[in-house]
Specification:
The protein is of the alpha/beta class and 246 residues long. The protein has helices at residues 46-57, 70-79, 86-102, 118-129, 167-179, 201-217, 219-224, 232-244; strands spanning 5-14, 17-26, 31-36, 61-65, 110-116, 134-140, 158-163, 184-189.
């Protein structure tokens, strides 16, 4: 049986502009995951929406956010001048974190960040700037190199997920791993490219993200499960995903 959910479109003020997000709060959850999309994408990204839906089923609230305004997105199609402006994107993400801290329905929830591609750099920089408010971070096919000097200042547990067919990004993630001091891990999904479009691969991303956020955002889960996803129960679940391509 699926949880009943509170779903609303919200608007967040950030330095004289308003950014839009879709907030979903299933009944009885205690953590919210804020999504930072990659370049050329937004809150309607099919892959991020799918991961968010799986997290909702797993007991998390989610906020899918457009980091650019409609006008900026229109201009971006011709100029590409904002998609790598990590300071701008992370600043807006930080305002969203502050909004979650003040909102009636989310202010008592642990906050996790899920970043994809360039959005991962924005998430990492935000995690460094709002270190006291971020419980955990997951990067999918991320560009942590764009986070620059923020990497050593990230304190929250961080999981890097990279496709096995994405060697350039894998190298960038491995280098970032060595610059950080927080609890961190890297998971490589065999047979997956940069966008995880291959059959069944985004399911594995969602399972890994759900496990990481449960481990670090939900205290009751952390007490029950202290091992990595290689334990028998979770590994069996992922093996089934690989076989069925669900």
């Amino acid at each position: 049986m699926e949880r009943s959910s509170r779903i609303q479109t919200i608007h967040i003020e950030s330095n004289a502009v308003s950014i839009t997000g879709d907030l979903t709060i299933p009944k009885g959850v205690s953590a919210v995951i804020l999504f930072a999309h990659g370049s050329g994408s937004g809150r309607h990204s099919s892959r991020n929406k799918y991961v968010a839906s799986q997290l909702n089923k797993g007991g998390f609230a989610t906020l899918l956010l457009d980091l650019l305004t409609t006008q900026e997105e229109h201009e971006e199609r011709f100029t590409n001048h904002l998609r790598f402006d990590i300071d701008l994107l992370s600043g807006r993400l930080c305002h969203a974190v502050d909004w979650l801290s003040d909102n009636t329905f989310t202010k008592n929830m642990a906050v996790g960040l899920f970043g994809a591609s360039t959005g991962s750099a924005a998430a990492l920089q935000c995690a460094a700037e709002r270190s006291g408010k971020i419980a955990a971070l997951v990067s999918r096919g991320g560009r942590p190199d764009l986070a620059g000097d923020a990497l050593p200042m990230v304190l929250c547990p961080t999981l890097f997920i990279v496709g096995g067919f994405d060697p350039h990004v894998l190298v960038l993630n491995e280098k970032a791993l060595h610059k950080m001091h927080c609890p961190r891990e890297i998971e490589i999904i065999p047979g997956a490219g940069h966008l995880f479009e291959e059959v069944g691969k985004i399911d594995i991303v969602a399972a890994m993200a759900g496990w990481w956020f449960a481990r670090h955002c939900l205290p009751t889960f952390a007490h029950r499960l202290e091992t990595r996803p290689g334990n028998q129960v979770v590994a069996t679940s992922w093996d089934n995903l690989e076989k069925t391509g669900s």
